[in-house]
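quick one, 285 residues, struct below
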Amino acid sequence: MSIPVGKVGSITIGYGKDRSSADKVLSSIKLLSGSNNDDEARKNAYDDLVKLGLKALTTLEDWYADPKNATESDYTGDYTVDNAYEEIKANNNISGSSTAEDVVNIDNNYTMGGTYNFTKLDVKTEYGTLNIPKEKIKTIDIFVPTGTGGEQIFKLMGNKHISGNTNGGWYKTGITLKQGQKFSLSATGEVTLASLSNSVYKPNGKTKASSTDDSDEDSEGSSSSYPKYGMLVYKIGESAYDALKAGSKFNGTAKTSGMLYISIYETVFNASNKGSYNVRITVNK
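---
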């Protein structure tokens, strides 16, 4: 299957399926899951399992998935299969949302699991080329600019790009602004926010039911500093805390230097949201 790079939003790198050490893993599991109370033997098996790290995970998960292995042992010490499994995950930053497969996000709306076949990523920088091993990579964000000149167009999805979504809610535009640089944003479209009684919102923060007026009441320097729900917002720099108002039309000046992020304002994220905003960003050189 061939997928145009412009359709790919991000690639999440999984921890892989490695069964090359299956025999060693099963040997350690057999000792740790039994009732052997020899702590020295159990410690050696435990240490062997932990040293295998990611190479042990697939076999461990296969073992857990087999119902016949759901038996209790009368051993009460620390050297158990469960503890080894948790230590391996902790040592390799494996969370509940991690998967063995690589996951490709398509159009910020669909996902497809599989194996992204590479061993390292070569990143060219002004300081030289960085060679990053695959196992050190968690996520690759794909950015393909559209538009012409200093203008680029982005699509914010209601079921992902919500400011209250702590897992990718802010869209990284790839645009770096310098302090004092002028830029503008304009947006069209509608989103249905399930978190707000399925009301339909426009980029200016107005509901479709409440008004047919698509103009913005708020602009840079407005006395009202808080964005409305459903409004297009932005921030400069990943660590910036405040969501700044943009609305359907905005002309502003960067107060600081950094990467430009955009999102749809809502403090509660609901994956059942629908719709999208098309956002046009123009930067003055």
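Residues 5-15+101-141 form one domain.
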